Amino acid sequence: MSTALSKVATTLPRFAVGKQQIFLPNHVITFISPKPLQPPNLAAFIVPLKFNKLDLRDYLWHAYGVEVRSVRSFISGKPLSKHYESGDGQDPIRHQTRRPKSEKKMLAELKVPFVFPSVPEDLSPWDNDIFKAVTEVSEGNSEDIKNLRVNRRRANVADRPVSNSRISLAKQAEALRLRKEAWSNDSELDDKWVEVEKDIQLPPSK
After folding, report:
1. Burial 133-161 (b: 16+ CB within 10 A, else e)
2. Do 29 and 46 meet the contact criterion of CB atoms below 8 Å apart?
3. Is 118 a residue whose pLDDT tops 80?
4. Three-state secondary structure along 135-179?
5. Beta carbons of 13 and 66 less than 8 angstroms apart
6. Which SUPFAM superfamilies does the entry mention (predicted)?
């Protein structure tokens, strides 16, 4: 009887757990790989902003049977970034600065230390060669598109071939500047436009 009670006692948590059962959770919790000087009894997680310390403690206990002694949480804000949003579906609206959504992290102190597994040296079972080939092709295409955009921005009017209309316009502007000819658009005015000075006799000025 004592052995059965001891087994039940070891399986039950030493803290009060939540009573609400969630069968289809819609939250995502990310386990962060530890830093070089991080002790094995500390585990870092990225959690939703609405998550609290009790939620993480219950989640680790019910999902993995991991007991947590304490939890620390903090919210890290993201720096301002340029946001490019398509206005009419084609041309992006530039120079829109916004702050991305903040990120909430939690640092849990584990009762039993956990050593993060090392990265395997042989990645062939996970098709690493195919992944590298696809990555190289994708990076090459991205670099070509980036260079094309940069060259497009640098291409100004002076680098484009001179058209005949531009040459004619330059000659007309030069003639007007030197007063060699008067400006005219070669269009006849309507009948309603009448020179007032020609039809009205003004009295001589005293």
Report:
1. eeeeeeeeeeeeeeeeeeeeeeeeeeeee
2. yes
3. yes
4. HHHHHHHHHHHHHHHHHHHHCCHHHCCCCHHHHHHHHHHHHHHCC
5. no
6. Ribosomal proteins S24e, L23 and L15e (SSF54189)
Question: What fold is seen in the domain 8-81+92-118?
Answer: Alpha-Beta Plaits (3.30.70)
For all residues of the chain together, what is the average pLDDT? 78
In this prediction, residues 189-195 reach a mean pLDDT of 63
pTM beyond 0.70: the answer is no
Residues in the chain: 206
Find all residues with CB under 8 Å of 100, minimum gap 6, and list them.
78, 81
Characterize the bridge pairing of strands 42-47 and 68-76.
Answer: unpaired
> Which pLDDT band, with edges at 50, 70 and 90, does 198 fall under?
low
Would residue 197 be called left, alpha or beta, if left means φ above 0 and alpha means ψ between -120 and 50 degrees? Answer: alpha
Asked whether residue 96 carries a pLDDT value surpassing 50, the answer given is yes
Q: What confidence category does residue 103 fall into, taking pLDDT thresholds of 50, 70 and 90?
A: very high
- The tokens describing 119, both together, are 């990265």
- Dihedral through CA 50, CA 53, CA 9, CA 112, nearest 10? 120
Q: What residue segments make up the domains of the chain, in order of their start?
A: 8-81+92-118, 119-157
